[in-house]
């Protein structure tokens, strides 16, 4: 029967036979699992299953996610995914394979007492396991330090994110006040201590499972928000300036001498800040004054702690446009000529918009070229707003060759 049905399925092809059989089998397997879950020892299965770990990661998801996003600013989505998903997963697979299988091997070779103690007191199982290996004293200290640092990194990220969520941050690059971070760290410690005193580890685990369910709803909203933000960013990158000319950022407006000077220029912080004051700021001021003459509210801001220039344009109900120039310290390339010092870094003047960094440097641009670049980005933003007005809620680009869409 198996051979006959396999032959018929292969004859019918992937889309009909193979796909439908696979879908049928998955539905049947899911139904069987649900039946056993409710017809069998339901409470035992829920407690013994990975429900606690599922709820644990759900509860920590918003905090860890925001913390990782905070420290990963400037990275691409590919880099963020590799750094936060693939590498940790690979490490955990190696850890579980080596540590877990070593413990299983001990039990299979007669260490039944170790297996019983590991089930009764999971928190002490790692120490009991290390007693079977050489250098017990050293490994015990290493395990204790490892556990301590894991708890510290979990607590500090939670306190930092909670303090940022409960504060009004005037600048996204700055964290909440120190006293707010201390307050949340104390609250986390007191709540943990109270739960442990009330019912031990079981009470703490039960609370996490209970709070994990509402946070799962939050995660769905976060996923929807990320999806919408990526669609919006895709649309913004697809917008061209209204006049259709190449932007200054592409280097096409630079003379060959300017391009050569930029290739050989590796300024220090003082030189970058001087260029901002003498060239970038006057360019922004001319744009600001002209916008004000046309009745548009515009202003220039400069942060004292982290010196950067920001041209902010208030567009009323459509929101605002922001063009920022940030001095960024980056590693000096190996081919760089450094006649004055052997410093390992130099400074770039990077352009940042509302949707993040644009990946190019304004250093050694002329004032008129910076004005051109600001106008290009401003027109691109206006084109994006116009696109939203024409098709609200739709961020797909019109298809080529369609007269109605064109």
Which key features would you list for this structure?
406 residues, alpha+beta, five-stranded antiparallel sheet, 5 strands, extended, disordered C terminus
Bulk shape? extended
Summed over residues and divided by their number, the pLDDT gives a mean of 77
Tell me the number of strands.
5
The percent of residues in helical segments reads 55-70%
Summed up, the helix count is 12
SS-based structural class? alpha+beta
Q: Any idea what the radius of gyration is?
A: 29 Å
Cα distance spanning the termini: 57 Å
Enumerate the strands of the largest sheet in spatial order, edge to edge or round the barrel.
1-2-3-4-5
Described by strand count, sense and barrel closure, the largest sheet is:
5 strands, antiparallel
Low-confidence stretches: 241-252, 395-406
Beta-strand residue percentage: 5-15%
* Helix-strand sequence: HHHHHHHHHHHEEEEEH
């Amino acid at each position: 029967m198996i051979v006959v049905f396999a032959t018929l399925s292969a004859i019918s092809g992937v889309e009909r036979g193979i796909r439908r059989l696979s879908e049928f089998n998955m539905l049947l397997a899911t139904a069987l699992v649900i039946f056993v879950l409710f017809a069998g020892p339901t409470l035992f299965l829920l407690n013994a299953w990975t429900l606690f770990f599922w709820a644990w990661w759900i509860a920590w998801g918003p905090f860890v996610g925001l913390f990782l996003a905070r420290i990963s600013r400037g990275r691409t989505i590919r880099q963020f995914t590799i750094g936060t998903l693939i590498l940790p997963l690979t490490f955990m697979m190696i850890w579980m394979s080596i540590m877990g299988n070593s413990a299983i091997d001990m039990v299979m070779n007669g260490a039944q007492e170790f297996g019983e103690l590991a089930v009764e007191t999971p928190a002490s199982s790692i120490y009991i396991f290390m007693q079977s290996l050489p250098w017990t004293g050293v490994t015990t200290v290493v395990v204790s330090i490892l556990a301590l640092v894991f708890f510290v990194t979990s607590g500090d990220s939670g306190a930092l994110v909670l303090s940022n969520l409960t504060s009004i941050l005037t600048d996204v690059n700055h964290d909440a006040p120190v006293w707010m971070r201390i307050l949340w760290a104390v609250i986390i410690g007191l709540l943990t201590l109270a739960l442990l005193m009330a019912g031990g580890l079981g009470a703490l685990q039960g609370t996490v499972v209970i709070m994990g369910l509402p946070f799962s709803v939050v995660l769905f909203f976060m996923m929807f928000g990320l999806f919408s933000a990526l669609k919006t960013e895709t649309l913004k990158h697809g917008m061209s300036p209204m006049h259709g000319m190449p932007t200054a950022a592409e280097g096409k407006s630079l003379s060959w001498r300017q391009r050569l000077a930029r290739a050989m220029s590796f300024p220090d912080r003082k030189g970058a800040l001087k260029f901002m004051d003498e060239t970038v700021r006057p360019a922004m001021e001319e744009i600001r004054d002209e916008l004000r003459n046309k009745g548009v509210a515009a202003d220039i801001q400069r942060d004292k702690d982290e010196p950067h220039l920001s041209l902010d344009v208030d567009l009323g109900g459509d929101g605002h446009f922001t063009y920022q120039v940030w001095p960024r310290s980056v590693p000096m390339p190996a081919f760089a000529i450094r006649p004055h010092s052997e410093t390992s870094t130099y400074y770039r003047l990077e352009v940042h918009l509302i949707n993040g960094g644009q990946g190019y440097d304004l250093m050694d641009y002329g004032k008129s070229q910076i004005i051109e670049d600001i106008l290009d980005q401003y027109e691109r933003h206006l084109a994006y707003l116009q696109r939203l007005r024409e098709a609200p809620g739709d961020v797909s680009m019109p298809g080529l060759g369609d007269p109605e869409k064109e």
